[in-house]
Amino acid sequence: MLDSIYPRVIPGPPRPSRILMPDSLAVRSGLERYEVPGGGAILVTLGAGDRVTLVNTEGGQVAELVAADPKGTIDAGLIGAAPNARAEGLKALLAANAGQGLRGLRLGLERRGIDLARAGAVTVFETTTPAGTEATFTATRDGVLIVAAPGPAMAPGDQDTVTPLGLRLHRASLQMVGRFDLPDPLADPVLDLRVKSATAEAYFVKAGDYIQVIDVDGRQCTDFQCFAARKLDQGIEHALDVTTSRTLMGHAYSMPGLHSKYYDQDMLPLIEVVQDTVGRHDAFAMACAAKYYDDIGYPGHINCSDNFNRALAPHGVAARPGWMAVNLFFNTGIDAHGVLYSDEPWSRPGDYVLFRALTDLICVSSACPDDTTPANGWYLSDIHVRTYPGAEKFSRAIAWRATPNAEPKMTKETAFHDRISALTRHVVEYKGYWLPQVYSSNGAIEEYWACREKAVVLDLSPLRKFEVTGPDAEALMQWVLTRDVKKLSVGQVVYSAMCYDHGGMIDDGTLFRLGRDNFRWIGGDDYGGIWLREQAEKLGLKVMVRSSTDQLHNIAVQGPNSREILKRMIWTPPHQPAIEELGWFRFTIGRLGDANGAPVVVSRTGYTGELGFEVFCHPKDGTALYDGVWDQGRDLGLRPMGLAALDMVRIEAGLIFAGYDFTDQTDPFEAGIGFTVPLKSKTDDFIGREALIRRKDHPSRKFVGLEIDAAVDVGHGDCLHIGRAQVGEVTSSVRSPLLGKNIALARVDVAHAEVGTEIEVGKLDGQQKRLPARIVGLSHYDPKKTRPQS
Question: How would residue 95 be classed by pLDDT, with cut points 50, 70 and 90?
């Protein structure tokens, strides 16, 4: 009877939402994570009772620890240990100015009065330590800990690479009170200003000085606004105008690189973005205002616009009901229906944006008080502002995270950047490095023809390299790659796919065999190395997988004259092939010039569809290698090549690019590289084999070439139609200088994939504008690959 009167009740209190997030986004959990770069070092502050866990992430990396008390006295007892070595590795890194972030480390040592001259260190781990091994220490009192990952420069033919260390810091108390609760300054600050939660502060910045806006606890947004001080002195209140800035920069918000400036309404440049560790901000919405909170039922709620008014009043700026601003760390976007949406910020504790003032400025920064939406992660905290003198030099950089759980890495310059930057300023961020898009004196078309007719040199250093060594190295690579690795000879290279269990591709790349138990995997994604280590651990294989990307930078010398250029400059010993003897997909180990030159590895590989080579060296030898190529290639018509021209030649040749031509939803057959999956001749099992058999026998899509009968730009993701029905999409497209027409790579339904099929490219909404096209072979240029094999 009662059941018919009262609804059935689920017993117990409500269960919390289950949300899975990376450890470093567990804000205010007491856990902090850091990465010590291979060949680098970091400094962290410690409180009594804090627990430090050091992780040998990739294995084989020695760690050097130096602890010091607040007075700068070095004492290993601070972490409950005794010194067992001198800090020679750390001192060598500082002396050579190697590694990442050592400028900040040096400044931190100086500020604390720490002298490493006779420092004792605690060394942890050995060169044989397995990946994932941990060592834990507990702080006995307050102080600092310097952690270094030292090691020698790796010769290209060797595999003794330095690799990163992981550091987890479990705080005994969630509140770090003291002078060093913030990340160390980037340099000696001019201004050190705390913007308390739900407030705003105004401040003056001199032209040329830098402004660092820091998210102290993570996921806290801040609105930024500024005025040209000279205009304010004249009574002209022209604030930074985000609409003008978006229009002039062509970006939703400005970012380091070519599109870095913010302007006022007179198009006067006010600031430029120099560094950004987040890469996600908003320049569409206004700073929160009283009307916003009134309209959602929170009348009288404190807001950034009123806080701006109070902070700017002493500077004679009239109050406004709502302020336009650059909304730093705000995670907003516009969906396919034109709706502006927001979610929790991407920023983590210590993340920052670094601006440079382009004129004298009056600035204002807030700590947003919005606790009614996820905009601040449902928790309000402080913002911190530091300014630095213009005499300091900070490289342009934006944060790059290899995986969602990875620590951010700032954009780096390759070993060839000094020479490249003298030839062009048109560089773009790619996979954590600055690479040239096009060269000022040539242009993409000239670079293209140089590759087809003479020779080019291009920087491919962002390719990810991994050293795979140990008695089970062959077994691991045979299991994770689709190719038959057992057939690979020492000195040989093979192109392969790497797949998930469902057959979708993780990456494509080349595998070098340096010895019986020695391999080098070169791909496009950091996750390839993580996947290799995960599989090795799962199977209990005796093998190490260590990143060598920062130890091996490489250029490609491509084109008909490439062999002659390298033949003039590469010396090889008798037991290695000479350049003229080097076969397609083979490599040799040699030196620049003669037996005493810088060591290099040269492979007869490329990404252009032409005869070509790739040359690998340690970054310290990058300038010598680049100069050598130019010295020997100038009379043979050598030109530099950027990414724009590279896209032209690789699309013509039908060569695929990750993220465009394939994803983890694409199998090798659907990516046009079915030849990398020898299902009949490879008798050993490998990851994804069963799925690939099924997908090959029952294909749904096919990778094809397109010729487009229109000079209208076609882009990645453009839909392909037969009548009203969509039957595929464009993956890559370019206007071919050789063919004089638009061409594309595309994936279409197998029912419409025959060569000669007439198809239409949808523009605008896919229906209102169509471009006639026809399906052709995948390779528009030299489909039999006779030129690279010549």
Answer: confident
pLDDT for residue 712 is more than 70:
yes
What is the Cα–Cα distance from 598 to 249, expressed in whole angstroms? 42
Question: Cα–Cα distance between 380 and 217 in angstroms, integer?
Answer: 9
DSSP 47-116: -TT-EEEEEESSS---EEEEEE-TTS-B-GGGGT----EE-HHHHHHHHHT-SSSHHHHHHHHHHHT---
Place of tokens 């040269």: 602
Quick: pLDDT tens for 404-454: 677 778 899 999 999 999 999 999 999 999 999 999 888 999 999 999 999
Least confident of 199-213, 245-259, 559-573: 245-259
**C-alpha–C-alpha distance, residues 706 and 694, integer Å:** 27
Helix (H) or strand (E) holding 323: none
Q: Which residues pair with 508 in a beta bridge?
A: 497
The region of weakest confidence among 88-102, 210-224, 251-265 is 88-102
Contact 260, 272 (CB under 8 A): yes
The secondary structure of 243-262 as a DSSP string is HHHHHHHTSSS--SSSS-EE
Among 570, 558, 579, 604, smallest CA distance to 455 is for 558
Distance of CA 585 to the CA centre of its chain: 28
CA-closest candidate to residue 690, choices 677, 701, 709, 702: 677
H or E element: which one contains 465? Answer: strand 464-469
Pairing of β 741-749 and β 725-736: antiparallel
- DSSP strand pairing (455-459 vs 638-640): parallel
pLDDT at position 399 is 87
What phi, psi does 354 have (nearest 5°)? Answer: -110, 120
Task: Give the whole-angstrom CA distance, residue 200 versus residue 207.
Answer: 22
> In whole angstroms, what is the distance from residue 118 CA to residue 46 CA?
22
Helices (H), 234-362: 242-249, 290-295, 304-312
Residues, the chain: 790
Inter-axis angle of helices 562-569 and 622-633, nearest 10: 120
| Chain centroid to CA 502 | 26
Of 775, 707, 787, residue with least CA distance to 739: 707
Amino acid at 40: G
Task: Report residue 480 as tokens.
Answer: 């994770």
Q: What is the arithmetic mean of pLDDT over 617-626?
A: 97
Residue with tokens 């920064």, as numbered in its chain: 365
Provide, for the chain, the percentages of residues in helix, strand and coil under a 3-state DSSP scheme, each rounded to the nearest 5.
Answer: 20, 30, 50
| C-alpha span between 629 and 562 (Å, rounded) | 10
- 3-class secondary structure for 204-237? EECCCCEEEEEECCCCCCEEEEEEEHHHHHCCCC
The whole-angstrom separation of Cα 2 and Cα 289 is 51
Grade residue 22 by pLDDT with cuts at 50, 70 and 90: low
Radius of gyration of the chain (CA): 29
Q: Six-digit token pair at 9? A: 């009740």
Q: Are 108 and 90 in contact (CB under 8 A)?
A: no
Which among 588, 401, 415 is positioned nearest to 492, based on CA atoms? 588
Going through 98-164 in order, the beta strands assigned E by DSSP cover 120-124, 133-138, 143-148
Which pLDDT band, with edges at 50, 70 and 90, does 775 fall under? very high
Alpha carbons 618 and 294: distance in angstroms, whole number: 61
DSSP 3-state assignment of 307?
A: helix
pTM for the full model? 0.92
pLDDT (tens digit per residue) in 178-197: 333 688 899 999 999 999 99
Return the biggest CA–CA distance within the chain.
99
Which residues 6+ apart lie within 8 Å of 451 measured at CB? 558, 559, 608, 610, 639, 641, 645, 649
Phi first, then psi, for residue 692 (nearest 5°) are: -70, -35
* 67 neighbors 158 (Cβ within 8 angstroms): no
81-89 mean pLDDT: 92
